[in-house]
Design brief:
It is built from 14 helices and 18 strands. By secondary structure, the chain is α/β, with parallel strands linked by helices. It folds into three domains: 96 residues, Elongation Factor Tu (Ef-tu), domain 3 (Beta Barrel); 273 residues, P-loop containing nucleotide triphosphate hydrolases (Rossmann fold, 3-Layer(aba) Sandwich); 113 residues, ATP synthase alpha/beta chain, C-terminal domain (Lysin, Up-down Bundle), CATH 1.20.150.20.
Length: 499
């Protein structure tokens, strides 16, 4: 049934004898109505509606909705938010006076939704009681706090050498198909039991990749505390443009309630391409690589909303892991340089390492975390203090040794230790480690407990140590001598042939 309004109050039309006309007041009422001047490729050009505002919802006579995206002198451009085939030139358009919002809350946990909050998993519509705008101002500085608590990804290289803190924006960058999304999945899976709500945003991905990601999260039990926001490759460009803002709005609601959240944007390269597509369709002046001039502002206003709030503002946090794609490792391309300048560090994936079998293929020399060290636990920080430098020196020595020069005994020893460390740093996908396991391998390597171990056997021995940790009672705060005593005992047992 269609509802109408009298003086702002809803009434039932037509056959309703219950309509109370005593509240009706005669008077002049003005309303704006525009018309569709052109339609195509998910964009509608509207003539009229002179008081329309950016990001305002508008409605078409066939029931379709759009979002005002550009204000021009004669025409305004709108993103279509529905795939209706009934929108045609000349159709009437009118204001709604509302901003685009998405339903938020714990009813979304375990669900797969589109950027408007509509379910894509075949389950009933969520019963929302609260809504958040997709576009919102970033928290002011006075509401923010310092990054001080670690967010563990379960990855040896990241948690030990490129640490991430809650509220940080850490870029994951590299060529296509070398493990960026896998690292993000590991990070989400590792939040199980840590009271962190996760939002995984899939932008412009093919349906097979979307299904694989959802199934991986479900199999690992991570979907229970995760929301998946999907805008597939065949979706309207407006949906792909709105997807990361929808994911951010969902996580921001929990952050304001004092919860810790993690948002993965996979990936912002496709998001930038969608924005470029919309801008070119609306004939905006193209700039470098045909992107519009405000492409930097597009991602900065999104990522600046990720932070850690002070206790007076709720005390929650939103950690962002944006993923960006490079071509042939080119870091100086337009979008990668923009994202590097916005974020608090980057994890760089190198295709040559991937081809050589070093997985995850993280280039430790080019990766950095500018503020994560402030949040790293003191025990892990102390144990990993020299490992990064030792590994980088080993890489230089190994390159020098390829020339076949005669090496001193000390150089040979450093090369052997470096090869051992390289084997230790390798890690299988979807096998995140606890922080206790990180401290265990750091101490075992740093204190020389693995010096007599052949590099090819180091991983197996450490896995047998990791199996002992859950029942050992060892914590990060446990004194170092107790750690070393346990590790020596376990490694000596692991040295014996398995029964």
């Amino acid at each position: 049934m269609n509802w109408r309004f009298l003086n702002g109050k809803p009434i039932m039309p037509d056959n309703s004898a219950a309509v109370n006309l005593q509240d009706y007041r005669f008077g002049l009422r003005l309303s704006e109505r525009g018309s569709v001047a052109g339609i195509g490729d998910g964009i509608a050009l509207i003539r009229g509606l002179p008081t329309a505002r950016l990001d305002e919802l508008i409605s078409f006579d066939d029931g379709s909705t759009g979002l005002v995206f550009q204000l021009g002198k004669d025409l305004l451009g709108a993103i279509l938010l529905s795939q209706s085939q009934g929108v045609t030139a000349g159709m009437s358009v009118q204001h709604t006076g509302r901003k685009l919002e998405i339903g938020v809350g714990e009813v979304l946990l375990g669900r797969v939704v589109d950027p408007l909050g509509k379910p894509l998993d075949g389950l009933p519509d969520p019963d929302f009681s609260q809504f958040n705008p997709l576009e919102a101002a970033a928290p002011p500085i006075i509401e923010r706090d310092f990054v001080k608590d670690p967010l563990y990804t379960g990855n040896k290289i990241v948690d030990a050498l490129i640490p991430i803190g809650k509220g940080q924006r850490q870029l994951i960058i590299g060529d296509d198909g070398i493990g960026k999304s896998t690292l993000a999945l590991d990070a989400v899976i590792n939040q199980k039991g840590r009271d962190v709500f996760c939002v995984f945003v899939l932008i412009g991905q093919p349906r097979s990749s979307v299904a694989g990601t959802i199934e991986t999260l479900r199999a690992a039990g991570a979907l229970d505390y995760t929301v998946v926001v999907v805008a597939e490759a065949n979706a309207l460009p407006g949906f792909r443009y709105l997807a990361p803002f929808a994911g951010c709005a969902i996580a921001e609601h929990w952050m304001r309630l004092g919860r810790d959240t993690l948002v993965v944007y996979d990936d912002l390269t496709r998001h930038a391409q969608s924005y470029r597509e919309l801008s070119l369709l609306l004939q905006r002046p193209p700039g470098r690589e045909a992107y519009p001039g405000d492409i930097f502002y597009l991602h900065s206003r999104l990522l600046e909303r990720s932070t850690v709030l002070g206790l007076s503002s709720g005390g929650g946090s939103m950690t962002a892991l944006p993923i960006i794609e490079t071509r042939q490792g080119e870091l100086s391309a337009y979008i990668p340089t923009n994202l590097i300048s916005i974020t608090d560090g980057q994890i760089y994936f190198e295709s040559k390492l991937f081809a050589a079998g070093f997985l995850p293929a993280i280039d430790i020399g080019r990766s950095v975390s500018r503020i994560g060290g402030k949040a790293q636990h003191e025990a892990i920080k102390a144990a990993s203090a020299r490992i990064r430098l030792d590994y980088l020196q080993f890489l230089e020595l190994e390159l020098f040794a390829r020339f076949g020069a005669r090496l001193e005994a000390g150089v040979e020893e450093k090369l052997r230790h470096g090869r051992l460390l390289r084997e230790i740093l390798k890690q299988d996908r979807l096998e995140p480690l606890s922080e206790q396991a990180h401290l265990a391998w750091l101490l075992a390597y740093g204190e020389g407990l693995l010096n007599e171990t052949p590099p090819e056997q180091a991983t197996e021995r450490l896995h047998r140590v990791f199996e002992q940790l859950p029942d050992s009672g060892l914590k990060l705060e446990t004194p170092k001598p107790q750690w070393l005593g346990k590790l020596k005992s376990w490694l000596s047992e692991a040295h014996e042939p398995a029964a």
